Structure to design on (252 residues):
């Protein structure tokens, strides 16, 4: 959908909400579209995003998107589907500029680790110090139960290409991704899942992790928990629901 039609589309879509939802949605929309950075991003990338989705036979604006991050490869995959019964289709690969810390989950404030686990985007910041940013719901339940002391927070996908625990992109990269994610949010997707893995958890990937961290059984166990979800998506292109045990471990 060309950007010149975006505001009309958003008004029509939001008018279908119930009053309470509509008030919140309109407030969110107005805040986003009052930002020159957001408007500039939409003007530059909405048309090209629309063509990319069309080329992959996926509707745009999207109704359901999913981000999958692989820290070792500095890669972020964008997937999309039209409804919950469909399989996700791969849309595009984005580059993550840098990853701080080592492979493995974030377990305490100040460890410079990029979190690993299953998250969702909970906020959009059009006035970020790093151009544009989208906040992850770190710490999640698993982090809270398995972390130590203060866990920290403020984990974002953002521009600026610098990091001490976030997922940075170039300013151009975040403009494009922010445009797509904002479109999905305004099109009704309240929670956009973001799965952050150390690497692709194939058999060879698991062998690499075992070789690199042979004396760290806690990390090995954590990655084994995550592998079930990774494997399921690889086979079906669908997501398993995120479930936790009482101890915060991922269970399936």
């Amino acid at each position: 959908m060309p950007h010149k039609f975006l505001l009309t589309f958003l008004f029509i879509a939001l008018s279908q909400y119930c009053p309470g939802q509509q008030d919140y949605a309109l407030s969110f929309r107005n805040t986003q579209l009052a930002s020159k950075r957001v408007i500039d991003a939409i003007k530059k990338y909405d048309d090209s995003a629309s063509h990319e989705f069309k080329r992959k036979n996926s509707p745009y604006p999207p109704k359901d998107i999913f981000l999958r991050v692989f820290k070792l490869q500095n890669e972020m995959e964008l997937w999309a589907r039209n409804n919950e019964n469909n399989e996700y289709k791969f849309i595009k690969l984005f580059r993550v500029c840098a990853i701080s810390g080592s492979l493995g989950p974030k377990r305490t404030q100040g460890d410079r680790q990029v979190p690993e686990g299953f998250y969702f985007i909970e906020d959009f910041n059009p006035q970020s110090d790093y151009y544009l940013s989208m906040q992850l719901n770190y710490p999640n339940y698993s982090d809270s139960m398995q972390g130590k002391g203060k866990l920290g927070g403020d984990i974002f996908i953002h521009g600026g290409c610098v990091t001490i625990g976030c997922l940075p992109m170039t300013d151009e990269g975040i403009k494009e991704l922010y445009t797509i994610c904002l479109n999905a949010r305004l099109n009704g997707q309240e929670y956009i899942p973001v799965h952050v893995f150390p690497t692709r958890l194939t058999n060879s990937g698991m062998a690499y992790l075992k070789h690199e961290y042979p004396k760290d059984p806690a990390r090995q166990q954590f990655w084994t928990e995550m592998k079930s979800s990774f494997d399921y998506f690889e086979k079906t292109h669908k997501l398993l629901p995120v479930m936790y045990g009482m101890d915060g471990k991922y269970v399936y």
About this structure: The helical segments are 6-14, 19-33, 36-55, 141-146, 171-186, 203-212, 217-236.
